[in-house]
Amino acid sequence: MTKPHKFIRTEDAPLLPPPATEAGITGWLWQNIFASMADFHSPMAALRSLFMIFFTLLLVYVFVDQTYGLLDFAIFSAVFTDPETLKREACWTVAQGGSLPEGWHAACWPFVWAKQKFALFGPYPEESLWRVYVSLFLGAIGLAWVLLERMPYRKHVGVLMLTAYPLITFILLTGGNSDTSFGSVGIWIITGLALISIGRMAQAGHLGSLLNDLSGIFGVLGWSIVILNAIRGIVAIDFNLQPVGTGDWGGLLITLVVAVTGIVASLPLGIVLALGRRSNMPVISILCTIFIEFWRGVPLITVLFMASVMLPLFLPAGVNFDNLLRALIGVMLFSAAYMAEVVRGGLQAIDKGQYEGAQAMGLSYWQMMRLIILPQALTHVIPGIVNTFIGLFKDTTLVSIVGIFDLLGAGQSAIADAAWSTPVQAITIYLYIGGIFFIFCFGMSRYSIYMENKLSKSRSH
Amino acid sequence: MASNSENGTAAASKMQVTDDVMISMEKVNKWYGNFHVLRDINLTVNKGERIVICGPSGSGKSTLIRCLNRLEEHQAGTITVQGITLNNDLKNIDEIRREVGMVFQHFNLFPHLTILENCTLAPIWVRRMPKAEAEEIAMQYLERVKIPEQAHKYPGQLSGGQQQRVAIARSLCMEPQLMLFDEPTSALDPEMIKEVLDTMVSLAEDGMSMICVTHEMGFARKVANRVIFMDEGQIIEEKEPEEFFNNPENERTQLFLSQILDH
Amino acid sequence: MQNSTLTSLIYDARYRGYFFQVLILFLLAFGMWWLVDNTVTNLADRGKSVGFGFLTAAAGFQISDTLGTWVMDYNVGDSTYLDVYFIGIINTFLVAILGIIGATFIGFSVGIMRLSRNFVVRSFATVYIELLRNIPLLLQLFFWYFAVLRALPSKREKIDIIPDVIGVNITGLYLPAPLPHSGFIYSVIAFVVAVGITLAMKRWAENRQAETGQRFPVLWTSVAVIAGFTLITFLATGSPLEWTFPEFKIDGPILRRGFQSGSGMVLVPEMMAVWLALTLYTAAFIAEIVRAGILAIAKGQTEAAYSIGMRPGMTLRLIIIPQALRVIIPPLTSQYLNLTKNSSLAVAIAYPELVSVFAGTALNQVGKEIEMIFMMMMVYLTFSLLTAAFMNWFNSRVKLVER
Questions:
Q1: Against a cut of 0.95, is the pTM above it?
Q2: Is C396 on the interface with B (CB under 8 A)?
Q3: Neighbours of C16 (CB within 10 A)
Q4: Chain-chain contact of B132 with C211 (C-beta, under 8 angstroms)
Q5: pLDDT at residue number C140
Q6: Most buried by CB count within 10 Å: which residue of A456, B166, C261, C299?
Q7: pLDDT tens across A24-78, in order?
Q8: Which residue in the set A33, A301, A438 is minimally distant from C344, CB to CB?
């Protein structure tokens, strides 16, 4: 039988600094690089370590080589100015007839500067470009205001961005002054107001009990008519702006218009579809499911083809559809289906208890959705929504295939310009356009990750 | 104790501690980055001993026992288990892991395998046993932990207490010399704690050497040869249970005991 | 009273549902009728008719050499539009399958690299993923086609990858073409038989392990059996496989120099560009899926496995990968479907897949938009539904059993 062990510490053991392999720069270097290379205890381990050493060196070499190559191409050896307006000859080697040394292969930036306005705004008339700048500026400020947490009245600005901003932008970009007659607008508005009044009277019980129960419909109908025609009216005002048709828009402007319109329109539609898919009524549920699965099952390019080719057939003869509008409709329907799935994921994540609590309080279906469920569901899937937007932003390049002039289409047409024909023509403009896309998409994906981290921290488990 | 009065000296000799040294930790230090998590740990555990380690959270208790089966690496000092030195040699680590079993706070059962498969996995793949033999041994241990009828269910179908008992059986199927318990009842609902503790007590009565990190002081009183109190990475006090609970000498021990024993 | 009947339809919980559904069906029927009516009027106005008869008419345009034209034996002026339809489907299928194989391989590698402890390896994978995910696929396609492949030597020159065997220039990648002779079928049979033997051997090894506990190196012996069996049969039947090598003429009249058509097998640059773009782009997404799948498996599983003595290789095979695959395979299948749908972008560089050849060239010639777009969408919808069915089946099969 051993003696029972007894120990009481009288003095604290010293707090020692960690060994070099644990902390500090050496620690980081060891853990992240050398640890995987230094294990020689057994033949297998030695083989693995040797492979790691070789592979790491190879990757370092490739990385340095490619990065240097890129920097050299884009900056060090690139041509930046074309003072004599030689155009393509400014970027030709001696053998081709220019002044650059043999073997030169780098970016021809004067080409990009020459095409830049075209790539960003398309053939938009120069003197009206200030309107585009104002729209973009307002948009940027509005977006920043809504995204930064410390700003006051974020929600109000958000609502403004979704309602007033599109209207203002539309007027600014197209010039307003549409053909609608103020007379017809006026008549419609009066009709709408009348309906609202009928609805009010019916609700107060002056018109009998049947109309009392149906008063809600009058109200909704009346307000819709009033709002719709108010918009028509505002768009018809002559602000003395030069009219610029959508055929004259192009480049990054089109990309932004398509992407933003797509997302803004697909969100409410997607919510409705998601709610419909989860509905208890089989007809609605089946219809929504078919709708969603159809648009998700076909490539976007076929949707765009369908929109540009078949929409004129589906609508009454004589209704002429703007080319851009057709593409927009296709994009909206397509992204609504994807958005519906994202929202559905959020709805499924809501605990059943939330529904039950809301119902126990006596809220109607729409009240419950609007006040309790959707706010939680949508917050939950903000990362998913941002990811869908990133995908949509990249997908806007497809409109160039159906003849709409987006950023990539501008690039392609720039390459076709023989006045700038050099061996590096294509690569230079792709570098520029790719850079723009990368900045937008990478920025958005960083934001999405930031939101995801924030949301998962605030979840209570 | 009940079993003592039943079997008298037989049970008493089963709970006897031998002179064979099972684990020896000398001047063990460990750091996580800049944080000195284990400071000058010196500990000897003999075969047949039952040790309970307690202390406030962050004191390094879990880290200490996880160093014993190399789930964590120590950077200074020596650890020897059953005569085998714990270092980077993979053969040593494999041998030690075969002799040492561990039960985790969150059970860590394999959800895609049945209970029986969870238990027979290591004997078949590590000890190269035929399936029938492994299943026999597994059923024996499942009976030992009193849930043989669940053998063909999946972990997701069992309660927390049942899952933890399966985890104990799974470790026992490798027939280890030493069992490590890392807060085995902390994740359980109160009504299930007793069934797991009873299993551990019966293991102890059968002579299994064990090191337990736990807050269950009733268990410590019943079964432990030694209770160790750790704080801030050091062993502060080490005594037999009766003396430990009645007469703690270090004031940190006194503070800790007053916090957990009063409610 | 009529009053209460109408309101009860709207407010009574029992009838409200039926009322709204009937209303919606009615509105839907009305909407459909309106659309169809417009369409019929518009078609009549343009003098078009509806019908699938055009499918038997001869197609009068050239299609580049691809697997589709080879399978359907395409001849200008002889083959019909139905043949064109199938050529499109075959070419879509071809580039999709090749893309899936490439993307899976690269994607899994990059995903595992992303999890490495080594900073260099990890960063390399991260840069790859971020770069390729944030640039539109169409731009990547244009980059490969217009910037990289255009830089290849012109038609009268070439770069030799393996001299006289594999060469490349701007007209394509030239590889030897296999020409099986009559005895080749035996080698194929031998291959199938060898695979069967391997499966039986695997079964036998499992039983042996269950009985005696001993393990059998199934993987290496399977490889040996399959390779050996097939090879021996091949040699025994006199190596009935001839290869035609691409021929490159250096001299003679200038217009005749270059790779001779009909010699060897050619991969047109359009297909190479599509394959490269699709593979690299999808691989970036697959890498993230693989990483998420492996990270989803709690650390405790690995620790539990180690603590019962299982080695890292065994743990990976028996514990981690089965659980990770459950998490990885559904989004992986989605990516495969996306890749197939993205192949439609090839219309921008005139690779003759379904959209390009059927909804592009053929549609321009025939003009029957509704029928042709409908036929095209049916193909993609079928792919999508099959994939969704597979995913549902897979999920129900491997679902973790819970209370």
A1: no
A2: no
A3: 14
A4: yes
A5: 94
A6: B166
A7: 888 888 888 888 777 777 787 788 888 889 999 999 999 999 999 999 888 888 8
A8: A301
